[in-house]
Amino acid sequence: MTETDALKLFKCLADKSRMRILKSLIIEDMYVERLSERLDLTPATISFHLKKLEDAGAVTAYKDQYYMMYSLCKDIFMTNILEILKEEAGDAKEQEERDNNYRQKVLDSFFEYGKLKTIPAQRKKERIVLEEITKSFEKGREYTEREVNIIIADFHDDFCTLRRDMISEGLLERNDNIYRVCQ
Questions:
Q1: CA–CA separation, 21 vs 140, rounded Å?
Q2: Of 70, 53, 71, whose CA–CA distance to 10 is shortest?
Q3: What is the pTM of this model?
Q4: Residue-wise over 80-117: b if at least 16 C-beta within 10 A, else e?
Q5: With 0-12 CB in 10 A as exposed, 13-18 as middle and 19+ as buried, what is 155?
Q6: I need a surface site. Which of 8, 34, 140, 147 has the fewest CB within 10 A?
Q7: Residue partners of 165: CB distance under 8 A and separation at least 6
Q8: DSSP letter string over 80-110?
Q9: Cα-based angle 155, 159, 164 (whole degrees, multiple of 5)
Q10: Each residue's pLDDT tens digit, 76-112
């Protein structure tokens, strides 16, 4: 189920009359007049709600002699909500582009000629800055504390704070005064 289909279904389910119709269709397939009698709603109201349910894929219609019968599409309700949430959003590329633009804006604001002007106070912005500094380290290589300090000092004089924050953010790991980039 796509994100658009899920939104359409969820909007459709957010109505008490439609829920009552679905509960009736669980029991048996019905035609408009029968649903109207059962739920004490006008046939026009039932038809309106059935059209919405049909558009959302919750019910199907079929001809039986003189009547249009409506039945519940049970398979659509078997879809796991986690599967819907895992579905890639239709605007994923735009969202990624906005994230990249934000990241670049933060880097442009805090770096000047490759040097960090100030350490950001906001954690989100500091994380972006720390990730940028982490790119200076080779993955898989072990560093002494002195080597780490020298690399970080190229960006900012307060290398102790930056080193500590890189460790707390999980970008660097320290084990017996040996540092390495977290994978």
A1: 60
A2: 53
A3: 0.54
A4: eeeebeeeeeeeeeeeeeeeeeeeeebeeebbeeeebe
A5: buried
A6: 140
A7: 119, 126, 130
A8: -HHHHHHSPPTTHHHHHHHHHHHHHHHHHHH
A9: 125
A10: 888 888 887 777 666 677 888 999 999 999 999 999 9
Q: For the chain, report the end-to-end CA distance as a whole number of angstroms.
A: 34
Residues 53, 60: Cα–Cα separation, whole Å: 8
Number of residues written out for the chain: 183
Q: What is the dihedral of CA 166, 170, 172, 175, to 10 degrees?
A: 120
Q: Which two tokens stand for residue 171?
A: 């970008």
Q: Which amino acid is at 106?
A: V
Tokens of 133: 């500094």
Q: Which of 110, 150, 138, 104 is nearest to 126 (CA)?
A: 110
**68 pairs with which residues across the strands?**
63
Q: Which of 7, 178, 165 is nearest to 85 (CA)?
A: 7
User: Contact, 70 vs 46, CB < 8 A?
Assistant: no
